[in-house]
Amino acid sequence: MKQNVLTRYRVMAYVTAVWLLVFTVAIIAKYAFGTGDTMVISQIHGVLFIVYVIFAFDLGSKAKWPFGKLLWVLAAGCIPFASFFVEPKVSREARALATKPAKEPAQA
User: φ and ψ at 80, to 5 degrees?
Assistant: First the structure.
């Protein structure tokens, strides 16, 4: 697995997490205080989340994660603050895979 796959995932995990927090604050402000519109923020977060899902699937397929782990990583992108806790753990595991040398093909 290449390091750039992990880097793309990490960047999108943090960017998506920050925009989810911005969206959460905007929703609270809209319904608690009747201020502002959340349309633009929700659309930006939606596009970023789609990119996050693509990069998470890419990382998961290259790291050969079980489907349950992939779902957990994707769910972390939907829960405010969860991505900040899940991403470092995922990165540690994936970094260990990225530094392992590739296995030599078996010779007949």
Answer: -55, 135
Please provide the DSSP assignment of 68-79 as one string: HHHHHHHHHTTS
Global pTM value: 0.82
Query: pLDDT at position 2, please?
Result: 80
Tokens for 54, please give them: 């693509």
Q: Which pairs count as long-range contacts for 84-88, CB under 8 Å and 24+ apart, including other chains? A: 84/14, 84/17, 86/13, 87/10, 87/13, 87/14, 87/17
Helix axes 67-76, 39-63, angle to 10 degrees: 150
Percent of the chain with pLDDT over 90: 57
Q: What is the mean pLDDT of the chain?
A: 88
